[in-house]
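2024-03-11 09:14:02 INFO worker-7 job=invfold-0412 stage=load source=structure_tokens
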């Protein structure tokens, strides 16, 4: 059993009638008997917030394979996991198996969660029938938050498969019968939805919210709108949505890049969307964790005894490491890559990297030692929590660590790219946006920023985060960057094939996406 995302809102009854997903009692705990939605007293409008908390639980309960599959095809990440999950490694090499379980799982979990979110919306609407005008307005805000969550899931699906279903109900037979929408139509749907919800959402940073700390605000919606317009290559739309965030003067870069991805950086002023996890500071009892084991090393000597290792399924690429070394990166490279002696030795076989900076070591600044293991040469530092930051008595790899989804640095770089591609901006130049990020990374300022400069900065700043690099290269038709270390990428490989199980079950899907 799992707690809800925010410990202040432990649920006392179930609010979801779910389709395509596991039963409700796998999502929640502290349940005194499971209630059907029809049994709820909708006149008790003070309970309406629990539908929203249930939605946040749905959003945060991600399968371990989801971020891996969304990310692995970029030139910043290799599959690792040698000797296991061969089809995952094949996917990294652009060899796709339509029957691979991960493809079907990503599809099922995302669509199942979309349906669950639609159910939460319908429950809020029922509460609104009994609410005061103030209560109705509160319900409108809750629904707006859930529509942002739903849009993010549609966004991921469209980037992975192209033409996908837009689902806005919890009984989607008719929507499925209508067939999938084009990727562009999905992105326009997201943009239109964000226009609808922005006025209804709190005008603050997520970490300023006191009702649900870290919850969605209007700036999360602006960020998702900017991302949708980026996929549509509507750079003025990107600039406008990004500028709304920048000109709010509410966001800033967390000053310590290394700590941003660890406990001190959680719910910082940089965060626009962050999945929250916790063991509530207790050595025993319930936890609500994301499973970070796939990102972790099989072999390590943690500074805090008994901290468990991982599975070795997610490896920073040698190409990324060399790119960072060539740029003279220090803080961002140390943060992004966890080194093994075997990986260092392999890097040094290239005479250009025979001498490495002192921070290149198999021991992190927090005292964790990453030993050699067969499945990978390196591990991801952005998905690492120092063992000394684990709660006493808790040993799971990165247990309780939050998962940043969208942060201000990405907004600044989208804005800068849009300006270099002809958009007009307000309040900041492309040089200023890029140099804010470079300053945090202890990199010298540059001037006359070009589109190529921005893409290099995105590679350095956002490597190994949610597949950002891969989808950028797809958008720009920069296939040569993805053809590295023996891989050959071509235009027909940009989308995964629809899962075979879905093609068999859904007549309106074809066997592949063009």
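2024-03-11 09:14:09 INFO worker-7 stage=emit residues=514
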């Amino acid at each position: 059993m799992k707690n809800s995302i925010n410990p202040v809102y432990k649920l006392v009854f179930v609010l979801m009638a779910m389709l395509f997903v596991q039963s409700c009692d796998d999502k929640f705990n502290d349940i005194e008997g499971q209630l059907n939605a029809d049994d709820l007293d909708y006149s008790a409008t003070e309970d309406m917030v629990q539908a929203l908390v249930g939605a946040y639980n749905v959003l945060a309960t991600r399968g371990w394979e989801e971020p891996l599959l969304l990310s692995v095809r970029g030139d910043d990440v290799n599959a690792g996991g040698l000797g296991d999950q061969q089809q995952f490694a094949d996917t990294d090499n652009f060899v796709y198996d339509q029957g691979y379980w991960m493809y079907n799982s990503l599809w099922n979990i995302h669509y199942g969660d979309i349906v669950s979110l639609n159910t939460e919306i319908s429950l809020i609407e029922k509460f609104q029938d009994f609410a005061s005008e103030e209560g109705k307005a509160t319900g409108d805000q809750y629904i707006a938050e859930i529509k942002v969550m739903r849009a993010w899931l549609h966004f991921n699906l469209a980037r992975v498969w192209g033409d996908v279903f837009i689902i806005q109900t919890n009984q989607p037979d008719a929507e499925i019968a209508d067939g999938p929408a084009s990727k562009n139509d999905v992105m326009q749907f997201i943009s239109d939805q964000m226009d609808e919800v922005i006025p209804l959402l709190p005008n603050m940073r997520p970490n300023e919210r006191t009702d649900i700390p870290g919850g969605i605000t209007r700036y999360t919606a602006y960020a998702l709108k900017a991302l949708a317009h980026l996929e549509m290559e509507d750079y003025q739309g990107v600039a406008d949505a990004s500028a709304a965030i920048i000109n709010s003067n509410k966001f800033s870069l967390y000053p310590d890049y290394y700590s941003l991805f660890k406990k001190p950086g959680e719910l910082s002023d940089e965060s626009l969307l962050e999945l929250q996890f916790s063991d509530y500071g207790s050595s025993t009892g319930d936890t609500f964790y994301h499973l970070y084991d796939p990102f972790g090393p099989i072999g390590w000597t943690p500074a805090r005894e008994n901290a468990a290792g991982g599975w070795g399924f997610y490896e920073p690429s040698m190409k990324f490491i060399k790119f960072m070394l060539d740029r003279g990166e220090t803080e961002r490279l140390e943060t992004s890559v966890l080194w093994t002696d075997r990986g260092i030795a392999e890097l040094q076989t290239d005479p250009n990297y025979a001498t490495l900076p002192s921070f290149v070591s198999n021991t992190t600044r927090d005292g964790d030692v990453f030993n050699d293991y067969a499945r990978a040469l390196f591990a991801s530092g952005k998905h690492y929590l120092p063992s000394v930051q684990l709660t006493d008595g808790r040993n799971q790899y990165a247990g309780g660590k939050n998962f940043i989804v969208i942060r201000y640095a990405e907004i600044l770089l989208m804005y800068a790219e849009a300006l270099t591609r002809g958009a007009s901006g307000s309040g900041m130049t492309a040089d200023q946006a890029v140099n804010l990020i470079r300053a945090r990374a202890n990199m010298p300022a540059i001037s006359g920023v070009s589109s190529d400069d921005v893409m290099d900065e995105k590679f350095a700043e956002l490597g190994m985060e949610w597949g950002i690099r891969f989808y950028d290269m797809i958008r720009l038709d920069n296939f040569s960057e993805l053809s590295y270390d023996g891989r050959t990428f071509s235009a027909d490989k940009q989308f995964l094939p629809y899962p075979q199980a879905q093609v068999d079950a859904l007549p309106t899907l074809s066997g592949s996406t063009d």
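2024-03-11 09:14:09 INFO worker-7 stage=report msg="The chain has two domains: 52-279+405-493, 293-402."
2024-03-11 09:14:10 INFO worker-7 job finished
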